[in-house]
């Protein structure tokens, strides 16, 4: 399901998004593309600032980034020299039929109009091609991470996604799932910067933003796991689904 206001909120925060959002573990990307020879032709769908694009390029693949937001796309181009970046969306990609060996979507699947997007992704893939959405999700088995998610109104969890994303329509085979542990290291100020890249924060009224800032500072300055260290290790569970076009 799409949420136009929130989905379009990231552009003005493109630089911060690229700075604070986590990268994707190499093992997750390799699993998503297992069986494809390099260089595979991979579409990074809803590519944002190119975090996933750069991970795929580092593995030796040919990557075409498709991103609807012009500010996010401009940042991607500026930080990823030589990449091909196209204006487009999951529901309408400016690519020919059977063009790609794989389509990946990082942190973006929940924005898609699923029925339309599934058909469009299948159109762009060759027979046997791979579709793999991937999510970096905070590990809420850690208590302070659960509190951070509550403050920032972050709802996606591994369990929620596994319960709500059960298939990718009739055009794809039943999905396989894999999970990978992942961490990022942040400064104390980075923690607040990360929260400020969330759509709920970006679309909130100034008073609500100030309240969230205050609560993040309070958590950072009072929780025993955070006050005793200069750097903060934020644990993630990277969830990847993989399906094939018959």
Descriptive notes:
This protein is of the alpha/beta class. Helix content is 39%, strand content 24%.
Q: Helix proportion of residues, in percent?
A: 25-40%
**What is the percentage of strand-forming residues?**
15-25%
Beta strand count? 7
Strand order of the largest sheet: 3-2-1-4-5-7-6
Secondary-structure element string: HHHEHEHEEHEHHEHHHHE
Low-confidence stretches: none
Shape: globular
What structural class do helix, strand and pairing data support?
A: alpha/beta
* Distance separating the two termini: 25 Å
Q: Sheet bearing the most strands, described?
A: 7 strands, mixed
Mean of residue pLDDT? Answer: 92
Secondary structure tally, helices: 12
Rg, Å, rounded = 18 Å
SSE arrangement:
Blueprint: H1 4-7, H2 14-20, H3 26-32, E1 41-45, H4 51-58, E2 62-66, H5 70-79, E3 84-86, E4 100-106, H6 114-124, E5 125-138, H7 143-152, H8 158-164, E6 176-187, H9 188-195, H10 199-202, H11 206-222, H12 224-227, E7 231-244
Parallel strand pairs: 1-2, 1-4, 2-3, 4-5
Antiparallel strand pairs: 5-7, 6-7
């Amino acid at each position: 399901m799409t949420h136009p206001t929130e989905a379009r909120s990231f552009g003005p925060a493109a630089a911060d998004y690229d700075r604070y959002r986590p990268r994707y573990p190499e093992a997750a990307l390799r699993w998503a593309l297992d069986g494809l020879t390099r260089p595979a032709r991979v579409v990074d769908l809803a590519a944002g600032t190119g975090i996933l694009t750069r991970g795929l390029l580092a593995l030796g693949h040919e990557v075409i980034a498709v991103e609807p937001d012009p500010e996010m796309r401009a940042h991607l181009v500026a930080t990823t020299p030589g990449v091909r970046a196209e204006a487009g969306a999951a529901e309408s990609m400016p690519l020919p039929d059977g063009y790609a060996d794989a389509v990946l979507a990082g942190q973006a699947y929940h924005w898609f109009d699923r029925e339309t997007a599934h058909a469009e992704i299948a159109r762009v893939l060759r027979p046997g091609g791979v579709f793999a959405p991937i999510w970096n999700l905070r590990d809420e088995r850690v208590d302070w991470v659960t509190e951070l998610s509550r403050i920032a109104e972050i709802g996606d969890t591994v369990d929620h996604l596994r319960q709500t994303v059960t298939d990718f329509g009739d055009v794809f085979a039943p999905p396989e799932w894999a999970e990978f542990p992942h961490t990022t290291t942040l400064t104390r100020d980075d923690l607040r910067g990360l929260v400020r890249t969330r759509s709920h924060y970006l679309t909130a009224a100034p008073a609500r933003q100030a309240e969230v800032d205050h609560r993040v500072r309070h958590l950072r300055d009072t929780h025993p796991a955070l006050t005793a260290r200069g750097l903060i290790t934020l644990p993630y569970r990277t969830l990847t689904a993989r399906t094939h076009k018959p």
